[in-house]
Amino acid sequence: MRILIVDDHAGFRRVARRLLEACGMDVVGEAGNGREALAMTEQLCPQVVVLDVLLPDMDGFVVAHELAGLPSPPRVVLISSLTRAELGTRVDTAPVAGFLAKEDLSGQRLADLAGLPPWPG
């Protein structure tokens, strides 16, 4: 599974990369904002984009809609330090595979939400 991590906090990106790579997942890149996420998705063709909701230049929901419009869109899993309840119905109406609180990120949870086969890691 080729993964792109999108979050404006470099520390979280490092932790997420280590956690997912320890499960045997292939993190192909990291982006710190929405514009980078869109460019890197077109360049790297990840299967899954782990996308923070709160980005400095674009709302993560806007990025998710842009990604959904690509010819071969990746599966998008939204992440946030906010709870799903705090985000309201926007998660339900977004073109995404699911939502994870940052503290709940794991290889298995990501694979489950992205609709991929059970992950051995």
UniProtKB/TrEMBL annotation:
Q: Which UniProt keywords apply?
A: Phosphoprotein
Family matches, as InterPro entries:
Bact_response_regulator, CheY-like_superfamily, NreC/VraR/RcsB-like_REC, Sig_transdc_resp-reg_receiver
Per the UniProt entry, the signal peptide is none
Asked if Secreted is a keyword of the record, the answer is no
The UniProt entry, under PROSITE patterns, shows: RESPONSE_REGULATORY
> Which PANTHER family does this UniProt record tie to the protein?
RESPONSE REGULATORY DOMAIN-CONTAINING PROTEIN (PTHR44591:SF3), STRESS RESPONSE REGULATOR PROTEIN 1 (PTHR44591)
Q: What is this protein called?
A: Two-component system response regulator
User: Which species is this UniProt entry from?
Assistant: Kibdelosporangium persicum
Supply the source organism's classification.
Answer: Bacteria, Bacillati, Actinomycetota, Actinomycetes, Pseudonocardiales
